[in-house]
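hey
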């Protein structure tokens, strides 16, 4: 099991001002009470997981660092659920500063 948070190498031509990290799924806490979606459509999760299986994760999730070394999921609950279905070891995320 992967337990280290690893920075993602960005290509120079990407021209972005954010740092992305591959964060182990075991370190991401997805609190349903913080999810803006009240219903998670299983068909949509399947659609996202099929896409992630085919082309990878195109859009990073956003997380906030907690005091215990884990991360609270802020945006990307469906991507997180899809990654869980695919048993992906990590999820690409931007760590938001709070």
């Amino acid at each position: 099991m992967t337990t280290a948070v690893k920075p993602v190498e960005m290509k120079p031509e990407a021209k972005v001002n954010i740092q992305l990290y591959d964060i182990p799924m075991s370190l991401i806490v997805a609190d349903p009470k913080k999810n803006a979606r009240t219903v998670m459509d299983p068909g949509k999760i399947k659609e996202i997981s099929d896409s992630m299986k085919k082309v990878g994760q195109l859009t990073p999730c956003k997380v906030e660092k907690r005091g215990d070394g884990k991360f609270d999921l802020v945006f990307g609950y469906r991507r997180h659920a899809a990654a869980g279905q695919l048993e992906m070891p990590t999820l690409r995320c931007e760590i938001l500063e709070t």
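The chain has a mean pLDDT of 88. The longest strand covers residues 90-96.
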